Amino acid sequence: MGNEESTTGAVAIRQLPADMYLPMGGMRMNDEKGKTPAQAESPVTRPHQRTHIVKTAFSGIWSLEDPDSLTIPSSRTGHFSTYCDALKVAVIGLGIGSDGQFYDDIWLLKPLERSWSQLPLNSTNGQISPRSGARATVIGTTLYIFGGSHEPMFYNDLYAVNLENGNIKFVQTTGQVPSPRTYPVLSSHNKEIILWGGYDGTWPSELYILDTETFVWACHPQDIGGRTNIAYDKVGDHIFGYGSAKTGGLLDIDIPNRKVTLQPTTGPEPSAAITDAAFVHFDNYLMFIGGKAASASTLIYAIDLTSFRWFVFHILPDGSTVSAVDGIISDLGFFMLPRTHSVGCIYVPESREIIAFLGFPLKDPSQLFILKVGEALSLLHLRTDMLQTIAPVDPSHP
């Protein structure tokens, strides 16, 4: 879109056939259509009926926990998920349930307390219509929500929500406003909002930056193909993403230089075709969890950001809330977790846990998916130190 102002209007976009091959990922989640996902992961091992889990040098511990609150959000996919560092809460909202109902609610999760609370919304200055595929980011205690769809209508509206009192405001923006779209990359750095990719009837590749002091959008063309439903997380002044593509490599959005590139990687990586996975930053690593694929079980992968090397992050069930029968043991003896996708996911440094919530499988009440990674981190640091002694890496890249 050219120099114009954003409006609350919506644009009708033709729905693609559910079985059509999308080179950079799907527009709408397959389970929302009642279809079986077509993408297939290329796992390191094939499932096999084995009963013994091999002992590895390090492992995270998987558990499932019930939230410690009387009210919890309805199970859903297509919701946004982000984190407010100032309030120490995860924030989710909107989305679509298994019955096809679109939501317009917002919920807060206190991760250490395992407690959900619904944010009471004051819509005097703006009301968000029910939708899925929106994305959100937090600056201070203000939640910014962009886009999404309630098919056939796609949106490019922007809302600001005060997370302390629930006041909603429609934000009028100017400049080179992004087209209405679903499932883009959306994050923030200092007082800027960064938007890339998504689906608007095509796969746009321009990088958009919004100054939240002037609310003027700027557009920066890129020499890279667009993607939608990509897993991503912000690390310093970069946003890294993976998946929804034909080939591997780590997507790197360099915020200061307004540049989107592919970072070459090594090691055993998850299938690049996977969509709707979770990507969460912890310590010097990014963990890749789940995503849509034909297989019902999955390994957990991580990438070391000092060397850009992928590796399998071994997981064990806690033996209390889950056991080996809740997953599959591969022919090499690795424990494979039941597949999830479209989840919200955060890292909690105080407890050194990764917590995922909502998404697929759709179950009410929805449990919290917990990975304890504290002990594994100590061993990973030791391994990294040994590898750097043998083959030092360039520490200049984040």
Note down, in words, how this protein is organized:
The protein has 398 residues and is mainly β. It has a domain at 38-75 and 295-391. 5% of the residues lie in helices and 37% in strands. It has two helices and 31 strands. Strands 1, 7, 8, 9, 10 and 11 form a six-stranded mixed beta sheet that branches. The chain is globular.
**What integer value in Å does the Rg equal?**
20 Å
Distance between the termini: 33 Å
Overall helicity: under 10%
List segments where confidence is low: pLDDT < 50 over at least 5 consecutive residues. 15-48
| Biggest beta-sheet profile | 6 strands, mixed
Beta content comes to 35-45%
Mean pLDDT: 88
Number of strands: 31
- Overall morphology: globular
**Structural class of the secondary elements?**
mainly beta
Query: Total number of helical segments?
Result: 2
Keywords:
single chain; 398 residues; mainly beta; 5-stranded mixed sheet; kelch repeat
List the helices and strands and how they pair.
Elements: E1 10-12, H1 30-33, E2 60-65, E3 80-84, E4 89-93, E5 106-110, E6 115-118, E7 122-125, E8 135-139, E9 142-150, E10 153-162, E11 167-170, E12 174-175, E13 185-189, E14 192-196, E15 207-211, E16 216-220, E17 231-235, E18 238-242, E19 250-254, E20 259-263, E21 278-282, E22 285-289, E23 297-298, E24 301-304, E25 309-312, E26 315-317, E27 328-329, E28 335-338, E29 344-348, E30 353-357, E31 368-372, H2 374-390
Parallel strand pairs: 2-26, 7-11, 12-16
Antiparallel strand pairs: 1-10, 2-31, 3-4, 4-5, 5-6, 8-9, 9-10, 10-11, 13-14, 14-15, 15-16, 17-18, 18-19, 19-20, 21-22, 22-24, 23-28, 24-25, 27-28, 29-30, 30-31
